[in-house]
Design brief:
Blueprint lengths: L9 H13 L5 H12 L5 H13 L3 E8 L7 E7 L1 H18 L11
Antiparallel strand pairs: 1-2
């Protein structure tokens, strides 16, 4: 039975897109930095980790622990990757936005 593609909230989309941009270097700190750099938003760490946990519960991301590092006091980083269903969910959401934007003229928005 094929898993149904869930509808995403705005912040979930932002997190998934940040993970996709980061590739193999996607862990909490880098995801947060990518979101800050690209959106001028400063997500609270708690909000980010809650969203990452929720995305993993939905099967949209998978995580694994890296090797412990001395810089982190021997703690391992938790790395994230977007699953195939996560890619489909964010692609579907973006297609919907593109259809809504088509023909509109918005300040600072290209190709709208």
């Amino acid at each position: 039975m094929q898993q149904q593609v869930p509808v995403l909230g705005e912040f979930e989309q932002i997190v998934l897109l940040a993970i996709l941009r980061l590739g193999a270097d996607a862990y909490g700190v880098t995801i947060r930095e990518e979101i800050q750099a690209r959106t001028d938003r400063e997500p609270a760490p708690g909000a980010l980790y809650t969203t990452l946990d929720r995305l993993e519960e939905k099967g949209l991301v998978a995580s694994h622990l890296g090797d412990p590092t001395p810089e982190r006091g021997g703690r391992a980083k938790r790395f994230f990757e977007v699953t195939a269903i996560g890619v489909e969910a964010v692609a579907r959401a973006q297609r919907s936005f593109q259809r809504l934007l088509k023909g509109l003229k918005l300040p600072g928005v290209v190709n709208a």
